């Protein structure tokens, strides 16, 4: 799971966790609030690390609304709200698809925040570290893109901080956000595939 180079792959403070529970809020409520924080931002830029299968890479994600740009391990992806372009330097090819929600989540884990309900049931984790909310997303069917996703969200800001993604084959991928800016402004061109830059790259259109 996670970025495609790791073969198709947030944290909430305890004091806030207790106060939210007192108000009767569910794990789903917390996820909804966190998703609203992220989606409500004009622009988001996060740096992150992905580890799994004995490999570790760093990356950057820029997003605005449903659009995003991701770079990790040399690979780059652009989603303009309709089509997803992914450049693979090892094959010197760019593939373009009109992605499903599951395919988008493989590239941009933040999408799990708002589009989990079709495949997952949320519940507070038994793991309750001080100063964090930890929420487990357990798969509801074999069609789910993962067996389980554990989400860590900062309770003061409600910003996601970490994902632990357990794939259907049991492999585990960790996505840790190391730095986040939730008040960015991006030109629309950031989320469009730069055709001029990749004029000599083979484009594989799978739409």
Describe the protein in words.
The chain is of the alpha+beta class. The protein has one domain (4-202): Lipoprotein localisation LolA/LolB/LppX (outer membrane lipoprotein receptor (LolB), chain A). It is built from 4 helices and 12 strands. It has helices spanning 14-22, 27-40, 101-107, 112-115; strands at 44-52, 55-64, 67-72, 75-79, 84-88, 93-97, 120-124, 133-139, 148-153, 160-166, 172-181, 202-205.
Q: Key terms for this structure?
A:
outer membrane lipoprotein receptor (LolB), chain A, 207 residues, 12 strands
Task: Spell out the blueprint of helices and strands.
Layout (H helix, E strand, L loop, with lengths): L13 H9 L4 H14 L3 E9 L2 E10 L2 E6 L2 E5 L4 E5 L4 E5 L3 H7 L4 H4 L4 E5 L8 E7 L8 E6 L6 E7 L5 E10 L20 E4 L2
Parallel strand pairs: 6-12
Antiparallel strand pairs: 1-2, 1-11, 2-3, 3-4, 4-5, 5-6, 7-8, 8-9, 9-10, 10-11
Summarize the structure.
This protein is of the alpha+beta class and 207 residues long. The chain is built from four helices and twelve strands.
Query: Beta fraction of the residues?
Result: 35-45%
What is the count of helical runs? 4
Which class of secondary structure composition applies to the elements? Answer: alpha+beta
Indicate how many domains the architecture comprises. Answer: 1
What is the CA-CA span between the terminal residues? Answer: 22 Å
Going across the biggest sheet, name each strand in turn: 7-8-9-10-11-1-2-3-4-5-6-12
Largest sheet: 12 strands, mixed
CATH superfamily: Lipoprotein localisation LolA/LolB/LppX
Radius of gyration: 17 Å
């Amino acid at each position: 799971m996670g970025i495609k180079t790791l073969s198709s792959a947030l944290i909430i403070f305890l004091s806030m966790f207790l106060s939210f529970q007192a108000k009767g809020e569910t794990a789903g409520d917390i996820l909804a609030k966190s998703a609203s924080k992220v989606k409500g931002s004009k622009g988001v830029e996060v740096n992150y690390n992905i580890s799994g299968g004995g490999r570790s890479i760093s990356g950057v994600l820029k997003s605005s609304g449903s659009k995003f740009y991701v770079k990790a391990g040399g690979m780059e992806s652009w989603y303009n709200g309709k089509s997803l372009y992914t450049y693979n330097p090892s094959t010197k090819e760019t593939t373009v698809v009109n992605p499903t929600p599951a395919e988008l989540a493989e590239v941009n884990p933040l999408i799990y925040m708002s589009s989990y309900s079709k495949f997952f049931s949320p519940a507070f984790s038994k793991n309750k570290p001080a100063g964090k909310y930890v929420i487990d997303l357990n798969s509801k069917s074999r069609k789910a893109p993962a067996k389980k996703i554990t989400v860590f969200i900062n309770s003061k800001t409600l910003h996601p901080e970490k994902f632990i993604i357990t794939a259907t084959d049991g492999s585990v991928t960790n996505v840790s956000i190391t730095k986040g800016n939730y008040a960015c402004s991006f030109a629309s061109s950031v989320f469009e595939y730069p055709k001029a830059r990749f004029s000599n790259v083979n484009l594989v259109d799978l739409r």
